[in-house]
From TrEMBL:
Signal peptide: none annotated. This is Haloacid dehalogenase type II. One of its GO terms (molecular function) is hydrolase activity, acting on acid halide bonds, in C-halide compounds. The lineage of its organism: Bacteria, Pseudomonadati, Pseudomonadota, Alphaproteobacteria, Acetobacterales. Keywords: Hydrolase. It comes from Roseicella aerolata. The keyword Oxidoreductase does not apply. Pfam families: Hydrolase.
Length: 241
């Protein structure tokens, strides 16, 4: 029996695996930077700088130094910080502009084959995000992008940020299945390693341009994951969907 014969649900890392965060953030940041007269700031570099604050902000919650705080709040704090790093006073933009730019994370586009691949996978498996995103963010993203989730589970449901074990184990519990019946699909080896340690099945999907054309991380699987696919369509083919 293959590992996937016992799998009932596939859960997905979202930022980078399902959607292209870098291009989406750059698209929404570009007109704001232009309005400020800051054409010296590359919008993609701005997106990278904003994203660079992502893990340190969540680590404050993971470590217990800060209570669990949903990602929309962390993103907004990080936005203020990255603007200040570029010599921009966030107050000059006004609250409405800041909030709209922060919601760029709700408006990210899926990778070109993602929706079609997910639709195929849904024929055989229950699908849900296993993301550090919050429920409102993931709901708005799914609505706009047409992501065919069966359930939307944000990080605040598990009250934990990956790679904390609770993020994976509580997701299985919420879905009413054993960890061995759950598979994480991700483009990030570290995420998959944490999921495997919790007893989940694992599927690596290549996203070699998540960080742009010069990406140097997660270009290949670091371990013998249960499945390795070039994209979601390839994964659907491998899993008989």
């Amino acid at each position: 029996m293959t590992r996937f014969e016992s799998v009932k649900a596939l859960v997905f890392d979202v930022f980078g695996t399902v959607v292209d965060w870098r291009e989406g953030i750059a698209r929404d940041a570009a007109p704001v930077l232009a309005r400020l007269g800051r054409r010296d700031i590359d919008p993609r570099a701005f997106a990278d700088a904003w994203r660079k604050r992502y893990q340190p902000a969540m680590e404050e919650c993971r470590s217990g130094r800060r209570p669990f705080t949903r990602l929309d709040v962390l993103h907004r704090e990080n936005l203020d910080g990255v603007l200040q790093d570029h010599g921009i006073d966030p107050a000059t933009l006004g609250e409405a502009v800041l909030e709209d730019l922060n919601r760029a994370w709700h408006r990210l586009d899926p990778w070109p084959e993602a929706v079609a691949g997910l639709t195929r996978l849904r024929r055989k498996f229950t699908l849900a995000p296993l993301s550090n995103g919050n429920v409102a963010l993931l709901t708005n993203m799914a609505k706009r992008a047409g992501l065919p989730w069966d359930a939307i589970l944000g990080a605040e449901v598990a009250q934990a940020y990956k790679p904390q074990p609770e993020a994976y184990l509580r997701t299985a519990e919420i879905l009413g299945i054993r960890p061995a019946e759950l598979c994480l699909v991700a483009a990030h080896n570290g995420d998959l390693k944490a999921a495997r340690a919790c007893g989940l099945a694992t599927a690596f999907v290549h996203r070699p341009t998540e960080h742009g054309p010069d990406q140097s991380t997660d270009l290949a699987p670091s371990e013998a994951w249960d499945a390795v696919a070039k994209d979601f369509q390839d994964l659907a083919h491998q899993l008989g969907c």
